[in-house]
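Page 47, continued from p. 46.
Same chain as before, 219 aa.
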Amino acid sequence: MIDSVIFDMDGLLIDSEPFWREAERKVFAGVGIQMTDAMCESAMGLRISEVIEHWHRLYPWETPGFDAIEKDILNLVGRLIGERGALMDGVSEILLFFKERSVPMAVASASPMALIDLFLERFQLRSHFRVVHSAEYEPYGKPHPAVFLSTAQKMNVHPTRVLVFEDSFNGLIAAKAARMKAVAVPAPEHRHQSRWVIADRVLERLTDWNEKLWTEFRR
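Result:
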């Protein structure tokens, strides 16, 4: 019986993945790495510290340090969210759907808490969520299940009673590793990929969620 819901944030609740790509391209270009869409996609769902470490292993540089690069990327993403951030289609509707049914909701994101707070305040959504948790407080980010397991613990609910909504494959792996049910809402350009088969359900957009699907998950 599913009785709690956890949402990812970037690319699911807010159309922020283009901001991350823009910021990563600009900042990594400063250390000689020309980021492509495929390179950015391969790291979707990871913590930014892990993204930086990953590219440093492949294309090492001397300066600036990891902290400086992380700060530059996060500052730019935060500015872009403030200037151009927009909710994904169906966010207001799906939050209302679960609120009307008194289903506890949480956010569990790879983004730092500062960006999660910025997003929640920007769109006045904080009151919808019982728990808000960032993978920055975990020893490992997605695809490790730690952020989802800790969020379930904070919600005082068993992982097997949780439904996760994710847009990234790394996040989907994390949800399944946590033994949670998972709905994948991949970006249109990725939806054709066969790897989404591990999800319990794949939606084109959040607006496709409905009472029938909810009933199926609660059986």
